[in-house]
What we know:
Elements lengths: L2 E5 L7 E3 L2 E9 L2 E3 L1 H9 L4 H9 L1 E11 L2 E6 L8 E4 L3 E5 L2 H7 L7 H10 L13 E2 L4 E8 L2 E8 L13 H23 L4 E4 L4 H12 L5 E7 L4 H13 L2 E6 L2 H7 L3 H11 L10 H9 L8 E2 L14 H4 L8 H12 L8
Amino acid sequence: MNRIRVHFRDRKLWNRSGTTYTRGSAFLDGTPIPRTSLCRTFSCERTFDGFLSLLRRLNGFFAVVHQVDDASFVAVDHVRSFPLFYSLGMKEFYVSDDPRWIRKNANEQAVDKLSAVEFLLAGYVTGSDTLSPHVKQVQAGEALAAIPTSGGLCITPLRYFEYTHGNYFPEPREKLLARLDSALIAAFERLIRWADGRTIVVPLSGGADSRVIVLMLKRLGYDNIVAFSYGRIGNEESWISRKVASTLGIRWEFVPYSNEAWYRWCRSDEWKTYSQAADNLSSVPHIQDWPAVWELRKQELVPQDSIFVPGLLAGHSLEPTIFPIIWPKHRVIDQRELLISICEAFYTLRDWSR
């Protein structure tokens, strides 16, 4: 029978109730659940069906590892705020937020060649794969059950939530804008309720996404906001950021970047810790904001319990050739055209034609 081994980089960040571990917080049917209560809520579930039913009622930013007798249930939230990884060995089932720990303890040194090619082309590995053949990642909105059978543990992954884009509301523009406004109000009221007076820190750029955040917070009466920008002194993004913050009456901080500062940052112990935690054997670490956040905290310009809310409304436009799939009234494209469109949109770091 497989032994279940659970490991976390920093156990202080995780709450525990018996053999249940949770990180983060959530809303259950719209009602906020304290961090410690979230752990107890999951610990009451004895079956995978019950575990899934609870997940479908939750909204928030969390990860959970729940052990019931010889079985384990693992899940992350809709956007995978806290990544989890797993591997099934000959005699042990590993679960951790550190894929390198799994790789080391499972004695897995090989590199998945196909994943390595994808990583070089896109900067990340898709699906549940990582650069290590037997170390897998729990995908956004996914839960998995590791259940003992006569032949050993059986791993069953299941997507309990999927975001599928479509034309759901065939209504006039005015009504669609009203729907969007209602959705924004609901989301930001939830954020304000969760923040509970703590400082909300916004990396305010010259773009629209971060501006929506500060505008909505001010609109709903939340004033404990700090905006910040960074980069070369006098850069255009920071100029726009400062102007927006000044117009809204928001405190603004700036972290200057330079060649000398980057040289110092990239040779620090904190950099090494961050880069390994951020790449997770599956993606290139995002380094642009990291020095600014580190300096803000190191210089105590923001409280330690601050909430960072970046304006990352991520998306990507595929090539126009795939539009007929979305709007079938036009021509239907073949498989090769679809594959080329995907490659030209996402696999762009190197020449993939070979």
